[in-house]
């Protein structure tokens, strides 16, 4: 296993590569998008949410992503800047519309439909940007389409050879991958000995089977990764380092469940925020659960309200 990151400005910087898009979220909690007629536009995209959460938590963070040359693209870039992120690595793509995702607000796993255009046009990642970062992160969503997939994998290969940490949220969804089941890309990512976040829902979608937590753990025990985190919603989180034993932490009690949308991104931001600061893994998990709880209890993004007290 790699040593913890060196304590200097460069290696504390987290580089996030992936989708910045518009989420159109239903006004009311619904089980299916078939039952909603009113939607509210929000800045979305797991990497964008993660980046903004990391920035909100005080981390040095850069986001690489693509939007269209349209009003939604203007809105999204402005939202990222308001969250404190630089627009330097956010590219405007001519003749491509900004990507949108329809999302059903839910207290469980939300129903969604993606309409993808500009988000998958990510180009070659600058070598200096890779070199100045200590950790690179992306998602299964971002890796599902070309040319983004090849450029992200190329950047990860360079980063891995340079001793950087690799992080992946394997938020797999069959509708995003179409005919490709993602197995080959997953194996390519695992060759980089990553920090792997995957939910129980992700496991079921990825394997095409209804899996118990125990069976998911058995399957993940065969995966090569520096760290694996299996999130199970209200049933807490299972995790392990390298080939060590699996450990468990319960979810933090919530006063009320307002919305689980974005809770996974909040969780992983809490984890990476402590990980890049050389904190013990148990502390990383505790912080992740604390940040996720705050998101579950709040409507909208954590980073849009400065009055929330950090743990």
Please provide a brief summary of the model.
The chain has helices spanning 46-56, 71-82, 127-131, 148-161, 174-177, 183-190, 200-207, 213-220, 263-275, 281-296; strands spanning 14-17, 21-26, 39-44, 61-68, 90-93, 100-103, 112-115, 135-139, 165-169, 195-199, 227-231, 237-241, 247-249. It has 311 residues and is α/β, with parallel strands linked by helices.
Question: Could you characterize what this model shows?
Answer:
By secondary structure, the chain is an alpha/beta fold. It has one domain (14-304): Ribokinase (UDP-N-acetylmuramoyl-L-alanine:D-glutamate ligase), CATH 3.40.1190.20. It is 32% helix and 21% strand. It has helices at 46-56, 71-82, 127-131, 148-161, 174-177, 183-190, 200-207, 213-220, 263-275, 281-296; strands at residues 14-17, 21-26, 39-44, 61-68, 90-93, 100-103, 112-115, 135-139, 165-169, 195-199, 227-231, 237-241, 247-249. Helix 1 crosses helix 9 (263-275) and helix 9 packs antiparallel against helix 10. The radius of gyration is 18 Å and the shape is globular. The two termini are 29 Å apart. Mean pLDDT is 91; it is low at 1-9 and 306-311.
